[in-house]
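Data availability (excerpt). The following record was deposited with the supplementary files.
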Amino acid sequence: MAAGDETYRPKDAIKPAIGGMVVTGVAGFAVSAIQNTLTKQNVTPWSVFTRSGSTIAVFAAMGGTYEFVRYAAANLRERDDSLNVVMGGFVAGNILGLRFGTTPAVLGFGAMTAIVMGAYDYGGGALTGYKKDKDVDEFERKEKLRLNRRRPIEETIGELGEGRGIYGSGYEERRRELLKVKYGLDVPAKS
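Predicted structure:
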């Protein structure tokens, strides 16, 4: 939402729920296939569905439920913020806890998933940090930061000395004079 735009526009909750169910169902299939390959006895390729198919179902249910609750909560609250993600994460974590069949597991997995998903969304939805403004060019932003923190060359030379790519004005003349005094070499000036 823009700064001046305060009206909430409802979003479809069914389409993202189906998409989330498909994506996490495929991830569940991959995990189920890994479980299938790690068994000690001989199994058929169909045992991905028969032996560890509940993994696929739990993953798909978690993804679909998360997306549905997130968008439904946003529509009911008429706000798009991190609390919707927390609600969706709690319900999705509850589904994971249902596999264990105890109330502490249901509430614990729900709380854990809600906290992790809420913190991730509140932190900008990226592992690299909060998302920067998409309207600002990244090159211009970095140039502005460089200019803001730039130090005068005299201060840098005073702390580090000359050499290693850091040279003040009149360096060539001082170098020629030093070589002449110290070693008796007459270095010609560059044209």
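Summary of structural features: Residues 41 and 108 are 34 Å apart (CA to CA).
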